[in-house]
Amino acid sequence: MIFKKIITSIVLILVLSNTFSQTLVINELDSLTKKNGDLSFGLKNSNFFKDNEYFNKIVEGYTLVGFWITPYLNYKISDNDEISVGAHLIHFSGRDKLYKIQPVLSFTHNFLPFFLITIGTIDNSNNHYLIPPLYDSEAFYFNQADNGIQILYNSDAIRNDTWLSWDKFIFYGDTTQEELTFGHSSRYTLINDSKLNMNLKINTIAKHKGGQINRPKKPIETLLNLGGSIEFAYCFDVPFLYQLSVEPFFCYYMKPTSYESQPFNKGWAFYPSVRWSISKNICLQSSYWYSNKFITARGERIFNSVAVLDNNYFETMRKMIINKIVFFKKFGGGVELNAGIEAYYLNNEYLLDYNFYFQLNWKFTRKITTL
Asked: Own/partner pairs for 81-85, CB < 8 Å, 24+ apart?
């Protein structure tokens, strides 16, 4: 209950703070291009392949091959309100049945053109702009239909994403615990000219397991991650050097509750990165991960200090050198291609692990009629 009250207070504070900037930017729902009474059909789809060639002691390798698809209807109720309803399906190749099929329903209200709130199925298309150690990039495959409440704010100077997702619901007498996730990501632009950009970034995510009505009673567990950085990006006018950016990210972990399922109560990590954008479509990144008793609440498991399948194995100090190359290309008709390869050199084990992935995404909307 205390955790829920804290989260509610944080959300209210962020909502109030978001109203101070008055610069107009059209949000991702593109509500301003729709007219009242418009009924539209939309379709979101991703076909993906990801191979994790991991042989370290924290997380073993696995492969994800499949697709997800979300057909939906959107109705523009008024100048500030719209509703979307549909279904979300996930299928993994090699399985005869669908991995998941669930209804999706979102109600969105625009307080201002750049400030909106969604209740129901929330937007997770950009992984909430959190860094991989705090939020697993594979959530793009598994969590496109998270449900809860989300507040989005997008202006020239500020971009905020604050959400609360209800991951597991329980009734009286259920043997499992309720689970929920709270997250917040902010980017505040400090300098923005034709050459130099400087941004302050703040990441917060908390995972909570608890509940009062489950039986038998189980201990409450809350894992909290905090992160922050100042990003410097400089644009060049030379071939093969579109942009160069440097971002030293600091992360902190704490376990406010006394549940003993984790070996550490608090820890920290340092995650500096250098990104070299060869063009608008190709990016190289080199990073270093240095952690001390760091446990990630919802991040990529290779950054964790505790083994995924065995809490008895952990590494107090964890060090990795990470290099990756990413290719991104938009085509006509809402089609985009995203591919990349990531290599992890684990200093503790003198081991080189890697993954590579390929995604073909499609987003389609078309007006049906005006009611």
From this structure: 81/107, 81/108, 81/109, 81/110, 82/29, 82/31, 82/34, 82/107, 82/108, 83/107, 83/108, 84/42, 84/108, 84/121
Q: What Cα–Cα distance (Å) separates residue 174 from each residue in 42, 180, 191? A: 37, 16, 52
pLDDT digit string, tens, across residues 20-55? 333 323 233 354 467 899 999 999 999 999 999 999
Confidence of residue 82 (pLDDT cuts 50, 70, 90): very high
Which residue type, as a one-letter code, is found at position 180? L
pLDDT single digits (tens) 341-357? 999 999 989 999 999 99
How many Cβ atoms from other residues are within 10 Å of residue 87's Cβ?
14
Distance CA 282, CA 246 (A): 17
Q: How far apart are CA 222 and CA 308, in angstroms?
A: 17
Residue 60 Cα to chain centre, angstroms:
22
Domain extents in the chain: 2-370
CA distance 349 to 333: 46
CATH of the structural domain 2-370, one choice from 2.40.160, 3.60.21, 2.40.440, 1.20.58? 2.40.160
HSE of 59 in the Cβ direction (CA atoms, 13 Å)?
A: 19
Q: What is the DSSP string of 161-201?
A: EEEEEEEE---TT-SSPEEEEEEEEEEEEEEESSSEEEEEE
Q: Which residues of 118-148 are buried (b: 16+ CB within 10 A; e: fewer)?
A: bebbbbbeebbbbbbbbbbbbbbbebbbbbb
Token code pair at residue 204: 């917060």
List the single range of 16-25, 48-57, 145-154, 225-234 with lowest mean pLDDT: 16-25
Collapse the DSSP code of 310 into the 3-class scheme (helix H, G, I; strand E, B; otherwise coil) and give the result.
coil
Structure confidence at residue 260 (pLDDT): 63
